[in-house]
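ligand=cobalt (II) ion
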Amino acid sequence: MSVLNVVRYPHPSLKRTCEAVSTFNTPELKTLADDMLETMKARNGIGLAANQVNIAKRILVAKVPDRRVQKAVWHDQELILVNPTITEKSGNASIQEGCLSFPEVYEQVQRSSKVKVRYQDVSGQTLELEADGLLAICLQHEMDHLDGVTMIDKLSRLKKDMVQRKLKKLGWL
Ligand code: CO
C-alpha cells in the first residue's frame, strides 16, 4: 500500500466529473481503494475522493470516528464506495467543513442531514447504506468531488471571494 499525492485547489482534477467504474474485482481497483484509505489516514482525513488523488473514477473512501456518527452500524468503519449515488435525502445540516484539497480552509456548507446511498463494493456487488451525523455530511462532500464540485462551489459569491483572497494570500493562486 502506498500514500498517494493529494492534489490541492485549483488543480484541474478537482473540476473533473469522474467516470463510472465498470470493471470490478481487479487488483488495480483493490489497490487504488487501499491506497486511498492509506492516504486518507496518513493525512488525518475522514473522507477522500479519487479525483483528489488525480484519478477520475467514481470511488470514494471514508472513515468517520464513532463518536461523530449516530448510526452505530457504521461507527469507525473503513468504507469504500464505488459508483455511489444518493437515493434518498432529508433534513438540513451544516457544519464547518474542511477538505484535504483545501488545507487551512474551513467553511459552513448546507447539506442534507440524512442520506441513503446506493453504491458498489470493489467486487461489484450493489449495496446500500443510510447515514446521518458527520458521515452523512462526509459522503455528500465526497460525492460532490466525484462530480467536480468542491466545497467552495457551495458557498455564496461573497464567501467564495473571501476564500479566494485567503488562498491568494497563502500563495496558492
Ligand atoms: Co474534500
